[in-house]
Recover the amino acids of this structure.
């Protein structure tokens, strides 16, 4: 066995030989993620059904028969407790009605002009006054907000259509053109729109988090405990020790990232199942389908990213005095990774120049987005790999040199 | 055989270190022109107060530090040019270098055996011998972190000797051990000497150095101030015992510095 493989085996055993560590590194995050999304789905579902089942208290002031019919026709009266008020009744207790809305005890006041019908009938041209319909509701109360939506989409549409028909005689007169939507799009891009926005961000964040979990302890932790020095006393080359540790960390953080992604894939349907209906996020995750080449491209980019992240974390950790100092050094890198991932979420469809693919993390995130959309060009794919791997190799050389540096290893 | 010729080790100090050490100089001479020799079949006792330069000297021998000036050779291998061969020839044990607490003594023994290029059969044979001598078999499968100080030290000594090295360098090997365990360690060091190994022991315990060492070297303020057998040192310093000689040397060289 070569020195590198002995070190690699030991590093893997350190994790896989410890049931508690395996549970906390790989199983617990999956359980937490699935449980968290399940709870979120359950809470959202509960909130939605609660809103649907709630009887909304609504006041209608100066209502005419058309409004009453519209309310009945749209079914608004089935979910609402409606009180019809005259102008005098309303004015007598106006503040009380408004306070009810403010305190969440009533959902909406629909106030129609006293002379609504006269103004409507007296309409001649655009210079004629139009009657007012005032809706009072509370945007900070879910029930009130929902009542407003139901009224706008249901009652008001029926009411407006009825009035227009009365004014022009036939609604056909208002039909001046036939609008036809002809959507031209790549099916895979349309299906994976959401995931292509989210996946690059999620992958870079999760890979970094996975690498950070194992990297800090494997370098700064071992240095702090004095166990790294014992390995440096062996005849094995320092580069072999560094390589063994880095490959082990790549494997561990890769597994950790796979666990995160699979958990996310499982968590989304769980979320919609618990919520009783499909959420936009859950639907979006179902839309991604990759062919073999795209799958391999994604795996290659993920591998390059893991290599880079492990190299960055190891490079900083080995220079830190202890794990606390290492975490302090790594935190700014985590922020950079988050920002790089986020930048790709809000990109327009403008063509990205090749040099941007060379930028580590950012270029990889764009490439992942392109893979999801089925648009990754071979040159861009290679550029994104080259930029990342070159930096990772430079850092790895730096790590191997650090193992030989007595100032770094022994604070000499 | 260990040969140290004119070893000098100078540490560069950054501003923070200068502040810590309350000095205006941006360097610290840890070891200054030290030459000594430890031969096969002898135990060489290295004495000196804290911060005298003993550990730095031993670290240079173990290839963990590079000499600023001078040279060190172990079994004829230069520590700079042939570091891997030197490391394969020595056992090095200090309080600052520890076994991974997440593993058992059994695993660590095999791990370091493999790092030294040993076969499974060689490791098993060596393990039977060393684990038997130090009574490690009873706790060999327990994690290092679960062991007492004495057990940890026994495990560390056994692991350091896995590859049957020609040179053994132990820094404070009996530190923190009970009298029974300490005795088993010193007895084994004598056994190693009798097997023709070169043994260097750094210690603060004068009585231990007196009983154990065939020759003794004293380092004070980075300089070797004495080297010889116990009778030679006592005669030169007109002292009754080693402790007496040490204090005479200490007051002489420490004050002069």
């Amino acid at each position: 066995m070569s020195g590198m493989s002995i070190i690699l085996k030991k590093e893997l055993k350190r994790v896989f030989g410890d049931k508690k560590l395996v549970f906390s590194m790989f199983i617990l995050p999956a359980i937490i993620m699935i449980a968290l999304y399940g709870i979120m789905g359950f809470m959202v579902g509960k909130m939605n059904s609660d809103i649907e089942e709630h009887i909304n208290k609504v006041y209608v002031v100066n209502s005419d028969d058309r409004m009453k019919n519209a309310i009945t026709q749209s079914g608004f009266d089935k979910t609402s407790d409606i009180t019809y008020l005259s102008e005098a009744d309303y004015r007598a207790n106006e503040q009380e009605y408004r306070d009810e809305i403010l305190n969440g005890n009533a959902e909406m006041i629909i106030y129609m002009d006293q002379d609504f019908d006269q103004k409507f009938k007296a309409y001649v041209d655009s210079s004629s006054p139009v009657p007012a319909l005032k809706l009072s509701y509370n945007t900070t109360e879910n029930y009130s907000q929902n009542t407003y939506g139901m009224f706008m989409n249901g009652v008001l549409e029926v009411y407006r259509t009825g009035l227009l028909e009365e004014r022009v005689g036939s609604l056909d007169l208002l039909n001046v053109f036939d609008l036809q939507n002809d959507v031209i799009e790549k099916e895979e891009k349309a299906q994976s729109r959401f995931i292509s926005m989210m996946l690059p961000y999620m992958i870079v964040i999760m890979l970094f988090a996975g690498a950070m979990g194992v990297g800090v302890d494997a370098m700064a932790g071992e240095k702090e405990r004095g166990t790294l020095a014992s390995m440096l006393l062996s005849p094995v080359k320092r580069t072999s020790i560094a390589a063994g540790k880095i490959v082990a960390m790549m494997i561990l953080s890769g597994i950790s990232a796979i666990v995160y992604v699979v958990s996310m894939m499982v968590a989304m349907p769980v979320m919609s199942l618990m919520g009783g209906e499909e959420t936009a996020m859950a639907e979006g995750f179902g839309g991604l389908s990759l062919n073999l080449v795209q799958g391999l491209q994604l795996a290659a980019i993920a591998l390059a990213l893991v290599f880079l992240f492990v190299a960055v974390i190891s490079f900083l950790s080995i220079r830190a005095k202890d794990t606390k100092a290492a975490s302090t050094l790594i935190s700014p890198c985590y922020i950079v990774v988050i920002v790089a991932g986020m930048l790709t979420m809000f990109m327009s469809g403008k063509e990205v120049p090749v040099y941007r693919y060379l930028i580590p993390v950012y270029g990889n995130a764009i490439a992942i987005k392109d893979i999801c959309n089925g648009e990754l060009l071979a040159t861009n794919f290679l550029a994104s790999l080259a930029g990342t791997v070159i930096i990772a190799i430079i850092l790895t050389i730096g790590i191997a040199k650090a193992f030989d540096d007595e100032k770094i290893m022994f604070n000499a | 055989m260990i040969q140290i010729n004119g070893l000098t080790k100078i540490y560069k100090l950054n501003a923070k270190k200068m502040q810590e050490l309350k000095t205006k100089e941006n360097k610290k001479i840890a070891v200054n022109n030290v030459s000594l020799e430890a031969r096969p079949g002898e135990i060489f006792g290295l004495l000196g107060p804290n911060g005298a330069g003993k550990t730095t000297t031993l670290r240079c021998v173990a290839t963990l530090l590079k000499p600023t000036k001078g040279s060190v050779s172990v079994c004829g291998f230069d520590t700079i040019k042939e570091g891997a061969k030197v490391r394969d020839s020595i056992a090095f044990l200090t309080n600052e270098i520890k076994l991974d607490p997440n593993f058992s003594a059994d695993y660590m023994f095999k791990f370091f055996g493999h790092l030294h290029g040993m076969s499974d059969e060689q490791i098993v044979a060596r393990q039977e011998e060393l684990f038997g001598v130090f009574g490690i078999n009873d706790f060999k499968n327990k994690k290092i972190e679960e062991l007492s100080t004495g057990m940890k030290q026994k495990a560390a000594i056994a692991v350091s000797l896995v590859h049957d090295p020609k040179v053994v360098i132990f820094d404070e090997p009996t530190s923190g051990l009970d009298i029974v365990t300490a005795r088993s360690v010193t007895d084994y060091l004598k056994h190693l000497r009798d097997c023709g190994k070169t043994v260097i022991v750094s210690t603060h315990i004068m009585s231990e150095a007196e009983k154990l060492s065939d020759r003794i070297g004293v380092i004070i303020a980075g300089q070797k101030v004495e080297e010889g057998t116990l009778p030679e040192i006592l005669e030169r310093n007109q002292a009754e015992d080693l402790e007496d000689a040490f204090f005479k040397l200490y007051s002489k060289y420490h004050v002069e510095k």
In short: The interface with chain B takes residues 1, 3, 6, 10, 13-14, 17-18, 222, 225-227, 229-237, 406-407, 409-410, 412 of chain A (CB under 8 Å).
